[in-house]
Amino acid sequence: MAPRGWPCSSGRGGAITLIRRFGSAANLNIHLHCLVLDGVYRCGADGLPAFVEAGARTDDDLHAPLQTLPGVLAAAVPPGPAGPGQRGTAQQADQQRG
Fold it and tell me: Model-level pTM greater than 0.85?
């Protein structure tokens, strides 16, 4: 909320992430379900929390962070048996391992 002119200490945000390991057919399918507040809770004059929406983002607000994402992912996830940008099956990976 600091870019909106409020000090970061004046509000409390939140997020919940569930890590799922299997798809509907009991196949290995690791994925995340995320619930993220689009704003913060601030204490009002009466001491009760009030939700303050963050407001709409512009394309420029989103462009810079998205440009860093490929580099972050490449550093965090080592290439698998198929290599980056390639598709492969588990059987092909086993064959490559010998």
Answer: no
Residue 52 CB burial class (10 angstroms; 0-12, 13-18, ≥19)? middle
How far is the C-alpha of 24 from the C-alpha of 89, rounded, in Å?
20
Torsion angles phi and psi, residue 51, rounded to 5: -80, 130
Q: What would the pLDDT profile of 15-66 be if each residue is shown by its tens digit? A: 889 888 877 777 788 888 999 888 888 887 888 888 888 888 888 888 888 8
Q: What is the DSSP letter of 16?
A: E
Q: How many CB atoms within 10 Å of residue 40?
A: 20
* Cβ atoms 53, 6 nearer than 8 A: no
CA distance 38 to 53: 6
